[in-house]
Amino acid sequence: MKILVLNAGSSSLKFELFDGDKSRLKGLAQRIGEERGHIRINDWEKEIRLQDHGDALKLLIEYMHAHPETAGSAEEIRAVGHRVVHGGSDFVRPVVIDERVKAKIRELFSLAPLHNPANLTGIETAEKYFPRAVQVAVFDTAFHQSIPEEEHRYAIPEKYYREGIRQYGFHGISHQYVSREAMKRLGRKDAKIITLHLGNGASMTAVRDGKSIATTMGFGPLSGLIMGTRSGDIDPSVLLYLLDHGMSHTELARMLNKESGMKALAGSNDMRDVEAAYERGEARAVLALRMYAGRIRKYIGAYTALMNGLDALVFTAGIGEHSPLVRALALENTDYLGIEWDKRKNEDPASHEGAIHADGSRVKIWVIPTREEWEIALQTQKLLHEHV
Ligand code: AMP
After folding, report:
1. Contacts of 198 (CB under 8 A, 6+ apart)
2. pLDDT, tens digit, 9 for 90 and up, residues 165-223
3. Ligand 1 atom at shortest distance from the alpha carbon of 262
4. Alpha helices (H) along 270-347
């Protein structure tokens, strides 16, 4: 069965085509709506003006017609699986998209103003270009809907909770995929796992018996870990103080989303730059990395306590997959939890099938590359099977 996965941003469109469990085609359109756009599909790429997301899909269909041996024809696509960032409290699993679902996604614009409008554009464009395919929404928040009320509620007056102010959590598709892979490796589902999605955005999740029971991102994506350009946890008093002292709402939003985190501490949101500066012994990079790793360690402790134990840790996403230094710093002084890692394996997890724990470590530690597109395809496929 052919399934196309779409991840639409406001000016970008990421896509991957699966045939069963095989990836047939992968691509990315960027700078949609700007003067000079760019599209890449497998090893073909082109600078071209892309007026809207539809222009990118037109090029994808043309590419498929020109490469039937790799991609087959566009008419064979049974379903399109869309990544939708915010599903609020309504969506706990993937759904077939109809007018009601689209209206709900629209209602949630205020909770995810950067992402949900772009995701809906992706859906409406795909409906136009793939009218015979079933459109499915897979939500980034859905996996975290199992977080119990005692954990997802904020201790503020109840009327705000009734308005939807609560923790939602994000990166759910990634946390779900890598935790399931870890359960396969452990050979059981009744496990206590902490997943660390460390990319430009970053979050950690406590997964017990296959269910998310706590995660570091909250109502929005600003809480928890220190990120590329976001501070993570910060006392709200700081924000009140800044607003009281002349900072505008717009400036505050920019500061928290774009100018904080590693960029503020070390001058770059690219962890490779920060690591290079750390190796040169630059004081601010050393401090930044110690803060970054310390925040992770704090949550490892917190989540182990919450689950009353720990069976496995999983590192994923750009930094989690590629930075032995960050992994090593984060795992410092965690041996009291039964976490013992192997220096040699940490340097090259690929040659140890991703395992970086020492022989005999009570807690297993794996580096598992995230496959969000594949997870969306899988969930879409499962939903279709349930429907027929
Ligand atoms: P993602 O959001 O998952 O694409 O991850 C992006 C982040 O991964 C950026 O901060 C990159 O600097 C970081 N990254 C990618 N490759 C490496 C690497 N080899 N070492 C350290 N960080 C990396």
Report:
1. 225, 296, 315, 316, 317, 318, 319, 320, 323, 326
2. 999 999 999 999 999 999 999 999 999 999 999 999 999 999 999 999 999 999 999 99
3. 10
4. 271-279, 283-307, 317-322, 324-330, 343-347
Residue with tokens 């205020």: 110
Give the residue from 358, 379, 377, 357 showing the smallest Cα distance to 366. Answer: 357
- Which helix (DSSP H) or strand (DSSP E) does residue 353 occupy? none
Nearest to 17 by CA among 85, 80, 83, 68: 80
Output the pTM of the full model.
Answer: 0.96
Dihedral-angle region of residue 247 (phi above 0 means left; psi in -120 to 50 means alpha; beta otherwise): beta
Task: Write the residue with the smallest CA distance to atom 2 of ligand 1.
Answer: 199
Catalytic residues: 140
Distance CA(31)–CA(27), nearest Å, equals 14
Which of 171, 270, 316 for a ligand 1 pocket mutation test, highest count of atoms within 8 Å of Cβ? 270
CA distance 299 to 198: 13
Q: Judge whether residue 386 has pLDDT over 90.
A: no
Query: Which ligand 1 atom minimizes the distance to the CA of 269?
Result: 10
Rg of the chain on CA atoms, in Å: 21
Cα–Cα distance measured from residue 106 to residue 338, given in angstroms and rounded to the nearest whole number: 46
